[in-house]
Amino acid sequence: MPCSDDPSGVSIDDMDTESITSPARRGRRFEELAEAECLHLLAGAVIGRIVFSAYGTASIRPVNFVVDEHAVVFRTASGAKFSPALRRATVSFEADRFDPVRGTGWSVIVAGATGLVHDPERTGRIGRALDTWMPGELGHLMYVDIEHVTGRRIVLADAD
Question: Which value, to the nearest 10 degrees, does the dihedral of the CA atoms of residues 45, 66, 39, 159 take?
Answer without folding.
Answer: 10
